[in-house]
Design brief:
Helices cover 35% and strands 15% of the residues. β3, α5 and β4 form a beta-alpha-beta unit.
Length: 559
């Protein structure tokens, strides 16, 4: 008697670590009929199940497509290196969680790129799916590989591997993409890509050729098709209130990073900090009404049994009708015996007493991002004083808070030793009021910001700054310091600022064994250095300050 794929898959799961990542069948998982679907989409978040299931964008697209009638969306996540070895040893390919179909059976694979440090995981996905690594080598029967998310806005390094990129917010645009593939169903691969390229926000790299001068400087793209627009315009949602939002919240069987109901209360930011890429790529600022949010929270808690609600935005304290929203959520939380948390705050925009009043003796987590010294903050458009921060910390302590998380960046333009010493003074003062966890990250000059042409500080400059801070803060009670690895920040800068030639480096690094580069335990900077060397490409070309005359690899994307 023949063994079905499902039975074989279940037997295989006994041989790899954390098999619950690959079982599916969670509460509220879609059970759409495979045969009746006109277009089949497999959504992939290129990280582990625990991280991918915490991504709101994936949940929104999953619900939108599966509620559309004639379409189907299923999910797949990337095995960690140990599990990947098991997949390869036992000759297993990746399958979708819902129906356990091979990824090659789908019409479209949609990859959400939240971070540049997940780029090598995309190659793992293609390899375990049995798909040719390079887009140009795929056959007529292979699915279209489409990438979206923040990482897709700097597409050139992944252009050799991705058939099409979607620029912008796909909340409802995903149905236009599915419809385009339905119209051309049965057509040739090239016809499908041409149909997608006609959609706003879709970039098909195969229809463009990068040009370089004699010195190897990037000159821009040449369109190879009449339908290849010289500029790809990012798609935005005009009315956040009207777009779909999940209430049939998937409930995993194993703990995930954000194991709760997440409410996106607004998108974008009212502030104009010069270093912030998020305010650009999530703009303009749009909000959901308190009435809508309270209704979504009520229905999601009812359908899931979750015991926590979290508000999501770039700065929840800037929500214009916060008092009314908090009052409504307090009622919903009491009704469902649920908790409440604030993940993102600006010091100058939140009434801590109001939050304490609405949610009683267990205040939500408190996180501030001073970024740098007061002087440096003001130069870069973040007009928050140290006095405001200290005042809020004192009020938080009186209102019941006990812990505070702080985020700073090192290497901001114009930063001097006096800025570091001002940071030390601020942290010392705050630690007298609360237990403080401080995270230091290297400033990365991100595309689409006013600082996109700035340079990245070198390793030696980062170490000097780190040593000063460690020395000056040594012995401070109730204080924990964390310094994000410089080499990971450097790689992120290289991947987000690189052109199409960097694709060769990504491929070489993956061949060398690079996976899950966002994780310190898996990150191997020496393998990346070898990849740059083997490809004959100088990484400093992308890290140094870029002149105003130089064309940037993302200039064809209109934000």
């Amino acid at each position: 008697m023949a063994v079905s794929h499902s039975e074989a898959a279940m037997r295989f799961l006994n041989l790899i670590p954390r098999p619950g990542r690959y079982v599916g069948a969670e509460v509220n998982a879609a059970g759409r009929d495979w045969n009746s679907a006109r277009v089949r989409l497999c959504l992939c978040f290129p990280d582990t199940y625990e991280v991918g299931m915490s991504n709101l964008g994936l949940r929104i697209l999953y619900g939108t497509v599966n509620n559309a009638g004639s379409y189907l969306a299923e999910r797949v996540f990337i095995p960690d290196p140990e599990a990947e070895a098991g997949f390869r040893q036992h000759h297993e390919g990746l399958w979708s969680l819902e129906s356990r179909h091979s990824l090659r059976d789908f019409d479209l694979i949609g990859v959400g790129l939240a971070s540049e440090l997940s780029y090598t995981n995309l190659l793992t996905l293609l390899s375990l799916a049995g798909l040719p690594r390079l887009s140009k080598d795929r056959t007529e029967t292979d699915p279209i590989v489409l990438a979206g998310g923040n990482g897709a806005l700097t597409p050139e390094p992944l252009a050799p591997f991705v058939d099409a990129f979607f620029m912008g917010e796909a909340d409802t645009a995903i149905l236009g993409i599915m419809s385009a593939l339905e119209r051309i169903r049965g057509g040739r691969r090239r016809e499908k890509l041409l149909e997608l390229a006609r959609l706003e926000g879709v970039y098909v790299p195969a229809f463009y050729r990068p040009e370089y001068d004699a010195d190897g400087d990037y000159l821009g793209l040449t369109g190879l098709e009449t339908s290849a627009s010289p500029r790809i315009r990012r798609v935005t949602v005009s009315d956040l209130e009207a777009v779909p939002f999940p209430t049939d919240w998937l409930v995993p069987y194993l703990p995930v990073i954000h194991d709760r109901v997440t409410l996106e209360i607004m998108r974008g930011c009212v502030h104009r900090c010069l270093f912030c890429q998020a305010r650009v790529i999530y703009g303009p600022c749009r909000v959901r009404s308190p009435e809508k949010l309270v209704d979504l929270a009520d229905r999601a808690l009812l359908k899931t049994g979750y015991e926590e609600i979290s508000l999501l935005s770039l700065s929840s304290g800037d929500y214009p009708r916060l008092k009314k929203l908090l009052a409504g959520l307090r009622f919903v939380c009491e009704k469902h015996r649920a908790r409440f948390s604030f993940p993102s705050l600006r010091v100058d925009s939140l009434d801590l007493e109001q939050v304490r009043t609405e949610f009683g003796r267990k205040p939500p987590a408190l996180t501030f991002a001073p970024e740098s010294s007061e002087a440096c903050r003001f130069r870069l458009g973040k007009r928050i004083t140290d006095a405001q921060i200290l005042e809020k910390a004192a009020a938080a302590s009186q209102a019941g808070w006990r812990h505070l998380k702080l985020y700073f960046m090192l290497g901001l333009p114009g930063e001097e030793e006096s800025d570091l010493r001002a940071i030390v003074v601020l942290i010392r003062e705050l630690s007298r009021r609360l237990a403080v966890n401080v995270s230091f990250n290297t400033f990365i000059p991100k595309p689409y910001t006013p600082l996109e042409r700035a340079d990245l500080i070198n390793r030696e400059a980062f170490e000097v700054r780190s040593q000063i801070l460690r020395r000056e803060l040594r012995g401070v009670r109730s204080l924990k310091l964390d310094f994000h690895a410089y080499e990971q920040s450097r790689l992120e800068a290289l991947l987000c600022r690189g052109d199409r030639r960097v694709g060769r480096v990504i491929e070489e690094a993956w061949e060398n064994g690079c996976r899950f580069d966002a994780y310190r335990e898996h990150f191997h900077p020496e393998l990346w250095e070898k990849a740059w060397l083997d490809c004959g490409l100088d990484p400093d070309r992308f890290l140094f300050k870029q002149s105003r005359r130089r064309v940037l690899p993302w200039n064809h994307i209109v934000i």
